[in-house]
Amino acid sequence: MKTMDLSLLWPLFALQGLLAVIGLISLARARSVRGPKWVWAIIILLGNLLGSLAYFTIGRKE
Amino acid sequence: MRNTWIFYRKEMLEMLRGYKLLWIPVVFMILGIMQPISAYYMPEILKMSGDVPPGLLESYTLPGAAEVMAKSLGQYGVIGLLVLALSAMNSFAGEREGGTAELVLARPLTPLAAASAKWLAQLTLLVLSLGLGAAGAGYYITLLIGPLPWSAAVSASALYGLWLMCAVSLTLLFSACLRAPAAAFLSLAAAGGLALLHTLLPRPLRWSPAALPKLSAEALLRQEYTSYAWVFPVLSGIALIVLCFLGASLLFDRNKLPRF
């Protein structure tokens, strides 16, 4: 059995983290979003890729 | 020409301020990297997910490098397409609803120059995202699975990129005459319809741009360059993009005012 090698996986986690950080910065600086901001913050933090995707595609107002 | 360049820079600035130039490439990279990693660790993932029938883990064979690359590109056909369409839907529509279209189209910027700037901006975003995503996938595949035929991988990515650009062009076309959500929905429906028609009638429609994803996978799996099956899909794809471009510049000129 292969063990999950962290040196292989960290770029994936780093990219996910980067996406969440971009999402949170955008959320903090947005004047208004669809729905309450704190809900989107939770979705971005807990929702991984899909959470951030949902925020950027649905939550953000242009 | 100069006007196009200035308008292109404004488009890119807008994409950066809207964080699109950041989050879309990151999403494409995550999607690209995820495929080889999950193929490599599939037995471990299955084991962690609970009860597995005993013979299953032993019978798992690691798919080949080209096959995983084709699957990585296939990821962009669903989530990638959705992301690109949703990000392009505001391109013209936002200009119109925000009231800047009238200002933009006051002289000396022609609708054609505005449309070409918008197309170039979307193309930049697509090339950046797909390039980074495919490079990430290729890197992980060579690391975990085995040597990847690079020239085949590059041509497969280019074929896939052309299909994605067709879908983005449809979004831009609809964005020039409809509200943003309707534009995204219609273009996704149109791209889905083209793909469905191609799967239903593969032989009579082998020239359709919807054949591009399949050709992209074939470029990797068979690595044959002798057949010229890609010529007509590529030409029809480019024709579709040009038609959308001309249509959008015409429609944008006619639909300058916001809809109520």
How does this structure look, described?
The complex is a heterodimer of chains A (62) and B (260). By secondary structure, chain A is an all-alpha fold. Chain A is 74% helix and 0% strand. Chain A is elongated. The N and C termini of chain A lie far apart (48 Å). By secondary structure, chain B is mainly α. Helix content of chain B is 78%, strand content 0%. Chain B is elongated, with a radius of gyration of 20 Å. The two termini of chain B are 34 Å apart. The relative contact order of chain B is 0.15. The A-B interface holds A 1-2, 4, 8-9, 11-12, 15-16, 18-19, 22-23, 25-26, 49, 52-53, 56-57, 60, 62 and B 18-19, 22-23, 26-27, 29-30, 33-34, 37, 40-41, 43-44, 47, 79, 82-83, 86-87, 90, 94, 136, 143-144, 180. Chain B: Pfam families: ABC2_membrane_2. Chain B: The chain crosses the membrane at residues 21-42, 73-93, 119-141, 153-175, 182-201, 230-252. Chain B: This is ABC-2 type transport system permease protein.
Secondary structure topology:
The complex is a heterodimer of chains A (62) and B (260).
Chain A: H1 6-29, H2 37-46, H3 48-59
Helix pairs in contact in A: 1-2, 1-3, 2-3
Chain B: H1 2-17, H2 20-40, H3 42-48, H4 54-59, H5 65-88, H6 90-97, H7 100-105, H8 111-144, H9 150-175, H10 180-200, H11 212-221, H12 231-254
Tally of extended strands of chain A?
A: 0
In terms of DSSP E residues, the strand content of chain B is under 5%
Low-confidence stretches of chain B: none
> Major beta sheet of chain B, specifics?
none
Give the number of helices of chain B: 12
Low-confidence parts of chain A: none
Question: Can you summarize the main beta sheet of chain A?
Answer: none
Query: Termini separation of chain B (Å)?
Result: 34 Å
| Largest interface, Cβ cutoff 8 Å | A-B, 22 and 27 residues
Structural class of chain B: mainly alpha
Q: List how many beta strands of chain B DSSP finds.
A: 0
Rough shape of chain A? Answer: elongated
User: Which structural category fits the helices and strands of chain A?
Assistant: mainly alpha
Supply the number of helical segments of chain A: 3
SSE ordering of chain B: HHHHHHHHHHHH
What proportion of the residues of chain A is helical, as a percent range? over 70%
Arithmetic mean of pLDDT of chain B = 88
Tell me, what's the shape of chain B?
elongated
